[in-house]
Specification:
The chain is an alpha/beta fold. It is 33% helix and 24% strand. Helix 5 crosses helix 6.
């Protein structure tokens, strides 16, 4: 299989064999026989979980109702898992993307012994099993590569790094950014030396800053210019959708320092700097509709104009070149693969259906709402809240913060703090399966920091709250805020 920059191709005849999609089009009064080419895709209604996936039986969403060999799950806002199916072709695409990363970005030679340590959760979630199958595909292509999958068990991972990794020339760590940082930090404390080894890192699921990237690589005595760290953009719904490249990382780094370039790429986006990846249009088609990314992809459960509820924008290669030229960066960009990575680019600003991400899991507004509406605490709070995470101690620690507005400024904060925190943890664990698993894996580190404000505070005016949030003199890194119920 060869991944290409060519346009996405769609077989409308195959759509007829998806029972749920036929019914969906019928309900929107769209006739399949009127669809002839990719240009007709604009005639198709937009789908998402609520109006399509959750409206039909899983088998009716599949091509000819045939159940593929692999299934993953994702925890939705209600806590009820969605099941996502993938076949051999989708796993082959994932394998080829990982092979390209090894070949074109990490410059790992086939003959060199390489150990891949998968630190993504190995439960029902997609990241662990998909990464495992992808690297098995790479090994079958003749690479001298071995895979071990401790998941998010830190002691197992450290044991592997101490006793197994030294036997290999290359080491690839694959996992969620905060967990990878935890592992590298713990390895350093235990005297497990990684700095003299050819270490590469693959992350996914959590957006990080360029400062975080630099902090992590400095712990390994590595340089950013060598591109030893690549983040993959994917989802349980659709598998791998794109990944960072030397070119996309260069653009993001420059935008973090250059205000004019930042505005050109990201507009007036006020949050943390968006993720920037490139994707293969032969495998997935993206559209930007009302600032949301709409995708079409040929997975085992075909997704047609599917709203993944990620926000962002799309730039084709010509637009990328024009932006670089405008800012006098073309010559430097050539050194980072401008003429090699002729793929469209995605700017990923955030999500419209998620309150906050923490250790790469999504915490939904409904998860927090269920806590606030609990009879034990509902009279104590107005219902307004914000949620964010932040890193401290040179990016080594990530904490989840939930700020809640008190119904009355006379309420004793110290008296209710434990009760409110316990209710939040209880409800998050009940309605968010991924949070429950994370809590069992990392213990107290998963507990939220609860902050109270008064209705008339107009923000964090309380001295203790400001002090709590100004670790290292830095402002909190807000991911996405959902206020009000």
């Amino acid at each position: 299989m060869k991944l290409q920059s060519s346009k996405f191709a769609i077989d409308f005849k195959k759509i007829k064999n998806i029972k749920a999609y036929r019914s969906f089009l019928l309900s929107h009064k769209v006739k399949l026989k009127s669809l002839k080419s990719v240009r007709d895709m604009a005639l198709l209604p937009i789908t998402d979980k609520s109006n399509y996936i959750n409206k039909f039986k899983p088998e009716d969403l599949l091509f000819k109702g045939k159940v593929p060999p692999m299934i993953s799950a994702s925890s939705g806002s209600s806590g009820r898992p969605n099941f996502w199916f993938r076949g051999d072709e989708q796993e082959e695409v994932g394998g080829e993307i990982h092979r390209i990363i090894l070949d074109k970005i990490f410059n790992i030679e086939k003959k060199d012994s390489t150990l891949v340590v998968i630190c993504f959760s190995m439960g029902v979630w997609i990241a662990g099993s998909y990464t495992l199958s992808s690297f098995r595909h790479v090994a079958r292509k003749g690479y001298n590569l071995s895979v071990i999958s401790p998941g998010i068990d830190r002691e197992d991972t450290l044991n592997i790094l101490k006793n197994l990794a030294p036997r290999f020339k290359n080491l690839i760590l694959a996992g969620y950014p905060p967990f990878i940082m935890d592992v590298i930090n713990d390895a350093s404390k235990k005297g497990i030396k990684l700095v003299n080894k050819k270490v590469k890192i693959i992350t996914s699921g959590d957006k990080f800053s360029e400062e975080w990237r630099s902090d992590l690589l400095s712990m390994l005595n590595m340089k950013d210019a060598d591109t030893p760290l690549v983040s993959i953009y994917g989802s349980a719904d659709a598998g791998i959708l794109g990944h960072e490249t030397p070119l996309s990382i260069f653009l993001r780094k420059e935008a973090s320092k250059n205000g004019a370039l930042r505005r050109e790429l990201f507009g007036d986006f006020a949050g943390p700097i968006p993720a920037v990846v490139q994707y293969y249009p032969s495998e997935v088609n993206f559209e930007a509709v009302s600032n949301e990314l709409i995708l079409t992809t040929k997975t085992a459960m075909p997704l047609m104009r599917y709203n993944i509820h990620d926000t962002g924008k799309i730039l084709n290669h010509a637009e990328i070149k024009n932006i670089l030229e405008k800012h006098g960066l073309t010559k430097r960009a050539i050194g980072f693969g401008l003429n090699d990575w002729k793929l469209p680019l995605l700017v990923l600003s955030g999500r419209t259906d998620v309150a906050v991400t923490f250790y790469a899991l999504n915490i939904y507004p409904e998860n927090i709402k269920s806590s606030i509406e609990d009879p034990r605490i509902t009279k104590l709070l107005t219902g307004n809240y914000s949620a964010f995470n932040r890193t401290s101690d040179k990016s080594k620690t990530e904490k989840l913060y939930i700020k809640l507005e008190l119904a009355d400024s006379k309420i004793n904060r110290k008296k209710i703090h434990r009760l409110v925190t316990n209710v939040l943890v209880e409800k998050l664990s009940e309605f968010n399966i991924e949070y429950r698993k994370l809590r069992s894996a990392i213990g107290k580190k998963a507990l939220p920091v609860v902050i109270f404000t008064n209705p008339d505070d107009n923000g964090l005016n309380n001295t203790n709250e400001r002090k709590l949030l100004s670790l290292n003199g830095k402002k909190p890194r807000v991911i996405l805020v959902k206020s009000g119920l």
